[in-house]
Amino acid sequence: MEGERKIYLEECEKLATPEEPKEQFDESERKFKEVQDVLKKAKAASAPGPNGIQYRVHKNCPKLTRRLWKLLTVVWRRKKMIDAWYKAEGCFISKEENSRKVEQFRTISLLNIEGKIFLAVLAKRTTRFLLSNKYRDISVQKGGMPEVSGCIEHTSVLTQILREAKEKKSDFAVL
Predict the structure, then answer these.
(1) N or C: which end of the chain has fewer CB within 10 A?
(2) How many domains does the chain have?
(3) Residues 125 and 145 in one domain
(4) What is the dihedral of CA 46, 52, 55, 58, to 10 degrees?
């Protein structure tokens, strides 16, 4: 199927064609403030990626943050991410005490923070573009949207269903 990648699919009637955007995607170079905003939200002590650099370094070293911003600007201009930003270290975290089997662990992937900062700015711009052009219906699709409490709402619904099942002494199943 490798040769068929460039073959376009026919129009699908069920897929809506979006209107032309009223606001264009912000393709301008990264602003220093955007990098600072990402750093403010990041946890200083979060685990570092393969290069060992934590957010704490950039939070406490403004000159280094400015150098990072310049690097991100060059990467943005070249339109090619640095290869090391694609690589992650897998880390196993035990789910319970005295874990001995693989099933008793969960894995997390640790990425270099420079790439995470680059992608966080891109994600914020993408979110702004989607919302400003009403390409995303937040009444249906809430996950990952700023200032939209999707998970809390689902938790509330499940809590209510569980409470009612207890009161009525009825069965409760979660799939």
Answers:
(1) C
(2) 2
(3) no
(4) 160
